[in-house]
Write a structure and sequence with these properties.
The protein is mainly beta and 216 residues long. The chain contains four helices and twelve strands. Strands 1, 2, 5, 6, 9, 10 and 11 form a seven-stranded mixed beta sheet that branches. It has a five-stranded mixed beta sheet with strand order 4-3-12-7-8. The protein is globular and about 45 Å long. This is Sulfoxide reductase catalytic subunit YedY.
Length: 216
């Protein structure tokens, strides 16, 4: 399936079209899946600020540290050997488009956090990207949602660099800027630490259903 073939020609895919082992995001079961102020797109848009980093798989690493019992670092080959998961979810960009019915593949967030061991003092997460020190923040509760995934594939294809490949974080219940592209590091912290867009005026939380776009 090419990027062009990801155009959705009919009704939005629904959760009943997927196998039992796929993790179903709760928002896909809503009667109305498009949040206030959003419009469904049938395309698979590309949107980011700044450059697309060049990432070589032979030097790529993912680190999980901060308030964890066992800090972890994975090479690409080590990451690819981890237990795999699939998540069916909708995807809401703060710029008002929503793409409904995405099938993400990768490693469940809970899988890696169980391995790392979350310390009781941890309350927030800071996701770091390979793109010039970019970060975003979120409550630990949202990060540990059952449908949160470290994704390396989308709708059957490896993630392209434009879409955050080789690996991006996907947290479906928050606006898409929280689903950090070009993921490099996950840091668990006790105190909230707003990231780049949050410091620039975007909402600190980012719930699409209550239109937490700016401020707050």
């Amino acid at each position: 399936m090419s990027e062009a073939e990801k155009y959705q020609t009919g009704d939005a895919p629904g959760p009943l079209t997927h196998a039992d082992e796929v993790i179903i995001s709760s928002d896909t079961r809503r009667e109305n899946r498009v949040p206030p102020g959003q419009t469904r797109t049938r395309k698979w848009p590309v949107l980011h600020y700044g450059r697309v980093p060049t990432i070589e798989l032979d030097t790529w690493e993912l680190t999980i540290d901060g308030l964890v019992d066992r800090p972890l670092t994975f090479s690409w080959s080590e990451f690819e050997e981890l237990p795999r998961a699939q998540v069916f979810s909708d995807f809401h960009c703060v710029t008002t488009w929503s793409r409904l019915g995405n099938l993400w593949e990768g490693v469940a967030v809970r899988e890696l956090m169980d391995r790392a061991g979350v310390q009781s003092a941890a309350r927030f997460v800071v996701a770091h990207g390979y793109d010039d020190g970019w970060t975003t923040n979120m409550p630990l509760e949202d990060f540990l949602s059952p449908d949160a995934i470290f994704a390396d594939r989308h709708d059957g294809q490896p993630l392209s660099a434009d879409h955050g490949g080789p690996l991006r974080l996907v947290v479906p219940l928050l606006y898409a800027w929280k689903s950090a592209k070009w993921l490099k590091r996950i840091e668990l912290v006790a105190e909230d630490r707003p990231g780049l867009w949050e410091q620039a005026g975007y909402h600190n939380h980012g719930d699409p259903w209550t239109e937490e776009r700016f401020g707050g």
